[in-house]
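Here's my example:
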Amino acid sequence: MNIKAQIPNAITLLNLFCGCIALVFASEMDFKMAFFFVALGIFFDFFDGFFARKFNVSGPLGVQLDSLADMVTSGFVPGFVMFKLMSNDACFGAESYFSYLGFIITLGSCYRLAKFNIDERQSDSFIGLPTPANALFILSLPLVLLTTEVAFIHNILRNPWVLLLITALSAYIMNAEIPLFSLKIKNFSFQKYKLQIFFLLVSIIMLVVLHYLAIPLVILTYVILSVITNLVQKK
């Protein structure tokens, strides 16, 4: 057995393991720990590909494992968290079947992951929002509710129709034909990567000032900047 070839696969399985743990915490309404383990899983998701390229052991098994692990950590968990949010008595109510519509996020994630595996256009940048970014967006919503006292934000995130809209937009934006600019900076060139540098600086400032509230805002900023960039480049 080639030990080097199994290192990326082992890291991918750690991603899956983190997703399973996150699911347990989400079921217990411990959204902070659920967010932590999803973020940790995404961290492992980044490094499995890094080591596969470093050891030159990329293969079809790793590709399939990666998608299956992401399906849990970045697909099922955010769908389940939205289901829990919609199950809140302040929303549709604990007995309402409408809360199951939160799993539309999981369906959208599954379609996105399958499409990504056969789409050769997404080697350096993305078309549609990646599932890990979408997962962080959804997982951050209950944390915003827990850590902010702004009544306006509470009213929005406890409104069942707003949550349904977020769910639908989440599934759509993951699969939309919207090119998103790459965050990879291969060499330090301000002129070449000024958009990426600007985005990273704005993101850091928002995280320092707004904490958990910054997470959905950072992801929204990423999508909006990408759309604006696409429009400018077309002119």
